[in-house]
């Protein structure tokens, strides 16, 4: 029997070492006829939903369901509410300080006297975030702690799609003159704004359009106290805000062309 069906016998030999067992299995399988058979049990066939619908219709419905699920994600709306509430809190604290100064005839008043101050974001709380960003950007740009400069052209390409949450930014130029000189750690890089926390513990929304930013990256180990704090130990980059009016994940696939910035 095993000579008549050599392929089946060879396959069965991998599972059964006994030749007698293999012959028995082959005889059982081909007891009715010499053709290979496969026994199937009848099952209940469930009616397929939307069987009459076209494939295109089903795809459209799936796309609609996906968009509906995205709308359920309330993380963005929660963050927007947080920003608005924080701005109201800052304004309330400012008015309280002004009123306290006027009523007590004082020139200076500490913000820590008011309960609203405890609820404000603190610049020091984001220093760790800034250190993480420096480590991330140095790895991205292949900057080693040996003082050697990387390929600047390659750096510019990588920076165009980099993440700026945690970066310490400073405003160099802006159509809004009140923004010039403002600086702080970016806590959120949105499509149209850099949301930063200033060293004065103030939350600030800086519009990208019409604004020119600058930031520095240390080329030495910035935690080393023996390194002098001079310009030779840092790489300074300037970015045009209007070119960054995209989310970081959208910028990664966009090619920036060299052209004049008319909004500055």
TrEMBL record:
One of its GO terms (biological process) is rRNA processing. This is Ribonuclease P protein subunit. It comes from Wickerhamomyces mucosus. Residues 45-76 form a coiled coil. Its main location: nucleus. GO terms for molecular function: ribonuclease P RNA binding. It is found in: Nucleus. InterPro entries: RNase_P/MRP_Rpp29-subunit, RNase_P/MRP_Rpp29_sf, Rof/RNase_P-like, Rpp29/RNP1.
